[in-house]
């Protein structure tokens, strides 16, 4: 598994690294719908752990099927 995010780092809204998976509005929509990566809500602060972001990214990995041509 390739890590897109630092495993032992916490990310907060506004960190540019989070733009890799979606902008602030998209992340808010996912939180509201109960989809997207796991997060912590501490008061008004939203925190994403790097290991949770990597696990979510891996779970959403898409590998196109390899077609054999004849």
Overview of this protein structure:
Helix content is 29%, strand content 16%. It is of the alpha+beta class and 70 residues long. It has one domain. Strands 1-3-2 form a 3-stranded antiparallel beta sheet. The N and C termini lie far apart (32 Å).
Features:
single chain, 70 residues, alpha+beta, three-stranded antiparallel β-sheet, 16% strand, elongated, Helix-turn-helix domain-containing protein
Summary of the model, kept short:
This protein is α+β, with helices and mostly antiparallel strands. The chain has two helices and three strands, in the order βαββα.
Describe the biggest sheet?
Answer: 3 strands, antiparallel
For the CA atoms, what is the radius of gyration? 15 Å
Strand line-up across the major sheet: 1-3-2
What spatial form do the alpha-carbon principal axes imply? elongated
The low-confidence parts are none
Kindly state the percentage of residues in helix.
Answer: 25-40%
How many DSSP helices?
2
Distance between the termini: 32 Å
Count the domains. Answer: 1
Please state the average pLDDT score. 92
| Percent of residues in beta strands | 15-25%
What is the string of helix and strand elements? EHEEH
By DSSP, the count of extended strands is: 3
Class from helix and strand fractions: alpha+beta
């Amino acid at each position: 598994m390739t890590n897109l995010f630092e495993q032992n780092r916490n990310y907060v809204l506004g960190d540019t690294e989070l733009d890799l998976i979606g902008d602030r509005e998209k992340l808010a929509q996912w939180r509201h719908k109960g989809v997207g990566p796991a997060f912590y809500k501490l008061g008004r602060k939203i925190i994403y752990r790097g290991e949770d972001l990597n696990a979510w990214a891996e779970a959403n990995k898409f590998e196109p099927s390899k077609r054999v041509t004849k």
